[in-house]
């Protein structure tokens, strides 16, 4: 009998605590249900959007983007946005001056000083973890991609590791390593009264975009607090001990003390992030008291959390959008251009050594020669062969747009000029293929594998379409779509063994310099692996324009140069520019104040929590 | 008995070396670059041409096999299991964080599994081939053959989506606030229900229980079906034994025959299997934890497998192998206590 009574009471408790329909659930708390949690809380380690989303709200930058804009800035911890007009950009773009705001408090009560700003950037530069984001600051400030490059140059050694005996620096290299700091790092960022001055190694047009990136390399940390936690002690002759640590050995890995609108209350990896409003925030306290980000990988669970109001905003993959459209109490914001794209690559020279992907390695109908794509007619043929509009409609369900080249919509230099787009045309494709390899390709046919990373159904569909239309146009064109695990994909890509493959890019900062060199520059992340012939071509025809564009401080001139580069990409059919995804944001209708900025970490699924409130 | 235990204990390190060797062999099939790619999910991280080389050196990915194995065993013996990409924290921290959650789930699941499984098994055997037996068997077959993730999703839809009773996760947002950040809540055992009782916080206890119910139902349904079949067949065997017939012939009442004479003996193999079942459940929570976003070992293992996070997968395999080996030992030893013939063999 007692057991029955207990059961009934327990059931009543369950029921009474379960429903809260008709009212705003958790009115003081924004709950986001997302996937994949942060890697770190250290801004100078962070290079993933999940970490960025949290760091964005706990730290501030010197300047930030103005609302939805990707090109206008507002001052944050600096009191002015530098420009040539206000005299804070000088020496033809080699000097940037930031007057630092007074009276700003860190979460622990420390007051922000210009020395904190100097320390932040210098610590970031010497920290420079492998595969991390610091190349973005090192390029403009030191003219290299890594602090290791500077050290190797100054010390005159072949490898950075040659200077070390285990973890200890060999005594003979101590002076050189100290010099790396005093001559390069220290000189790059200096304090002058209440100002911080950046000395660039070369004019670098997107420098303000880089500095303004919240959630990572632009964040300002508390020098005194950081040193107390065990971070770099700000000394010239110790920096290498703090360079490239293991993530978990980084003293700032799991803690945070910024000037941002929220304080990190608790981080349970891959489970939850809990943020609490910082009442002394220099712009005034946020409207909501708490922010909770839950990491829920299972879509059904996220959907039910949204439906029951347990989550205010959730990440919804494209294929599930129909399930939330029209859901009661839910707002769906669509057509949000994201700063990412997908491109199929045609490497001009393929590594033929032990490479089964190109069959016989000859143009005999049983393979392709290693330099197959060096013939422009082959590239143009494939550019006409892809059914762009059909793909976007059927595969992407209209949640993507086309790009004319490597630049995505929303960036400087982007053009909608129809002459820059290839359109699906079997007759034009046939015309080009007949010209390729002096007609031998059309006569003999070709056989090779085309690649996508396994599990990516969108890219698989793109490969299937290309293969099907190739077969349709000429039965001797035998392209086999192959899905491989990402690890193997990356390995074969780096070995230059993939003849045709699809890959994507997500913006680090919203400037064409983050895209054009990547896709078509001679040392680009992708194009550097197109083979020697392409690299030579790019050095001659592309790099000079890239160099000119990065050094120019005139936006109009830069836009013109990037348009010219896009035209080259189009005319030479360097790659097959597939699509730019269109994002969406899904939230409960009781959430107010959301806006979209494409470069903000976590957007469009997440939000700038500082601007949000909850009410019916 | 002591000799038997020592013999079994001596075998333990040999088995563990075999297990670690096998696991290391499998992952050594990947080249250093492939293993590096499992650390690097974004090719933009290779913007610096030297980065790949530096990362390979950093993670000792190009060491020769024997050296690599020895170094790896040395590292794991110091609990340095590497970095978990799936958990975004050191692997050992990930295990420490998630093990209590899984243990709590298994502890609460074991009770219905054993009680219901044995009870239904006995009833089924006693009512051999009649309607009750057939109904129970059909239910068991359905439970055994229904994919766990389908049953889990059904439970989620009904008890959370429709009724709103049993939410996913381990705690509600308000409860997380108290448990994770509250100064008045002490985590003595990291088993939230137990800690809630020790802290005298009944609302947290109820909230944790609400979150446990759905995965418990999902997990139990599959496992009790298994245990039921074992209990039923063991009971049927026992009921056919001579001493049961003798007891009945002596006029002992049926209740005593079943519950005193037959059940005790019939449950010896069931107890043995139940012991292994508990260990097996620790590895079998993957689906239940994933569906209900319950932050335990299974949820982590599933995420790790999807991300090719080999550090985590190795650790999970190692942990599970260790639990199986130790669990097996405990069961064997306890069985030897129950049945002296085992020792003599």
In short:
The complex is a heterodimer of chains A (616) and B (345). Chain A is α+β, with helices and mostly antiparallel strands and 616 residues long. Chain A has 20 helices and 22 strands.
Set down the secondary structure blueprint.
The complex is a heterodimer of chains A (616) and B (345).
Chain A: H1 2-16, E1 29-34, H2 49-58, E2 63-65, E3 73-75, E4 89-90, E5 95-99, H3 114-127, H4 135-142, H5 147-155, E6 164-165, E7 168-169, H6 174-188, E8 189-192, E9 195-199, H7 207-211, H8 223-229, E10 262-268, E11 272-277, E12 290-295, H9 299-308, E13 313-314, H10 321-324, E14 330-337, E15 340-345, H11 376-385, H12 388-395, E16 400-401, H13 426-435, H14 440-444, E17 446-453, H15 457-473, E18 477-484, H16 486-494, E19 501-506, H17 516-520, H18 532-541, H19 543-551, H20 555-571, E20 575-588, E21 591-592, E22 613-614
Parallel strand pairs in A: 1-12, 1-13, 17-18
Antiparallel strand pairs in A: 2-3, 4-5, 5-9, 6-7, 8-9, 10-11, 11-12, 13-20, 14-20, 15-19, 15-20, 16-20, 21-22
Helix pairs in contact in A: 5-6, 11-13, 19-20
Chain B: H1 2-28, H2 32-39, H3 51-58, H4 65-77, E1 83-84, E2 89-90, H5 91-126, H6 131-145, H7 148-162, H8 173-181, H9 192-198, H10 202-239, H11 242-249, H12 254-284, H13 286-291, H14 297-306, H15 310-338, H16 341-344
Antiparallel strand pairs in B: 1-2
Helix pairs in contact in B: 1-4, 1-15, 5-6, 5-10, 5-12, 6-10, 7-10, 9-10, 10-12, 12-15, 14-15
